[in-house]
Amino acid sequence: MSTIITNSPEETIKTAEKIGSMLKAGDMIAYKGGLGAGKTTFTRGIASGLGLGDCVSSPTFALVNEYRGNDITLYHFDMYRIQTEDGLESTGFFDYPFDENIAVIEWSENISDFLPKSTIYITINIVGENDREIIIKGGERFADIGN
Question: What CATH number does domain 2-133 carry, 3.90.550.10, 3.40.50.300, 3.30.1130.10, 3.40.30.10?
């Protein structure tokens, strides 16, 4: 487990860029954090760290946004409205080629029963107006990221 405190959206993005640069095909990240915690901001940093640019937007209404690179695609899911396996099935979630790409999932607690054991969990807690506590569980390669 690794814990990081950031004091601005820019610091949060820089932390996520570092994590993004360490991700590999097959990684799945499950976010935990309330409304406005910075899950989409964090995803912007991950996409940048993967070399996919930073044109990331919330997938709230689309359910999934795809950011394609030459070698890898980042799938950005929002599971806020998904509560059942049938609901998850209707999103096409099980049809995505996760082994060859990377997925990040907002509101992952709604589908936690269907996530692989190798899932990396990132909790983002609001501790001040711009301050965030970021807790990473899973994936030993992130152990030295904390401050």
Answer: 3.40.50.300
